[in-house]
Amino acid sequence: MDQLLQCAVGHPGSRHLHSWEAPGPGPDHHHGSCTDLQRNLPRAIFISIPLVTFVYVFANVAYVTAMSPQELLASNAVAVTFGEKLLGVMVWIMPISVALSTFGGVNGSLFTSSRLFFAGAREGHLPSVLAMIHVKRCTPIPALLFTCISTLLMLVTGDIYTLINYVGFINYLFYGVTVAGQIVLRWKKPDINRPIKVNLLFPIVYLLFWAFLLVFSLWSEPVVCGIGLAIMLTGVPVYFLGVYWKHKPRCFNKFIELLTLVSQKMCVVVYPKGDEDQKLEERNQDVEQQQPICHPPASKDKDAVEP
């Protein structure tokens, strides 16, 4: 995560300090050129995906081997039921393992979800305070707090399974849209810099499976999918209010400025420094070092008046 943050920080434009807008991908926007990331990210993907697939497949094989189909359907926690049948006195291992696995998933979601808000604010689609990081720890604290508040609001619902269905459908829908965007960009902008480039066969195969599962979900659970789409469309008014509407009233801008200032003081956050600002500071330091410490006094001959 430290490499990802260092390779994707924004630009601290002064005109964006107290506004809805945030620094965009201009000439000072640092998209990331870390060679270690270009080498380690594909390696992590190629190692983790086969490993996780192996574990999941053989775990399900173990469940099906030890339990009947009726037991699988009647169990609320298949892994716990599996442990009760086979582990005996060591049955307590399964609930702890499930809790640790859930904690790991939540930990990863916290990093990725907050980064989505951070990147959206940096592009000007969310209030600019969400694009700020802590002055010492370099963590996007406002984005993390925003993720926490939105998560608590979603937990207000009484039925957790309905919430899982809503969130799962929306996430799955955006996964496909994101992968489709990769194909569109490869077609419309073939010459842009791509630090990591994959064969188009992978996104095309993914989109085929994605379309099949999406149509199946719409056919089997039309009400849940419809409510999920309605929840997703609630972001349209926010887009028109914050992004599309350019000439906002002064009271609205004052409120955003006050909110940004208070958030900066409470969280001790600022905009990350871009490459151009770092170069400018280094250039100024070099100029100061090249200047003499003391200037020689003016010559008396220059002050004398010729007769």
From TrEMBL:
Keyword Repeat appears in the UniProt entry: no
Record field: transmembrane: 45-66, 86-106, 141-163, 169-187, 199-220, 226-245
Membrane topology, as annotated: Multi-pass membrane protein
One GO MF term attached to the UniProt entry: neutral L-amino acid transmembrane transporter activity
Keyword Protein transport: no
Subcellular location: Membrane
Annotated Basic and acidic residues bias: 298-307
Stretches the record annotates as Disordered: 279-307
Gene3D superfamilies per record: Amino acid/polyamine transporter I (1.20.1740.10)
Matching InterPro entries: AA/rel_permease1, AminoAcid_Transporter
Keywords: Membrane, Transmembrane, Transmembrane helix
GO cellular component terms, A-Z: membrane
Family matches, as Pfam families: AA_permease_2
Protein name: Solute carrier family 7 member 8
Organism in which the protein naturally occurs: Moschus moschiferus
